Amino acid sequence: MALFVERVGEMASEKTTKVILAAAMVAVVLGVAGYVLVFWHNYQGCQQLEADAARNGKPMSCADIKAAAKAANKQ
Q1: The pLDDT of residue 5
Q2: Does pTM surpass 0.85?
């Protein structure tokens, strides 16, 4: 009987470990996906800002546009 109880405890421990590892993997995947989504969103925003500046006859890089906006907000 003691051997049976010991085996059940080992199985529960293995299952708990697997569940925790799976949850950790999901958390890592979601974190990476979030990072990629934010990067993509910022990239798309810069592309839009550069296109708008080019349409207005003042082609500028995203860094220049952000610097100008930051300077305008300081005033």
Answers
A1: 45
A2: no
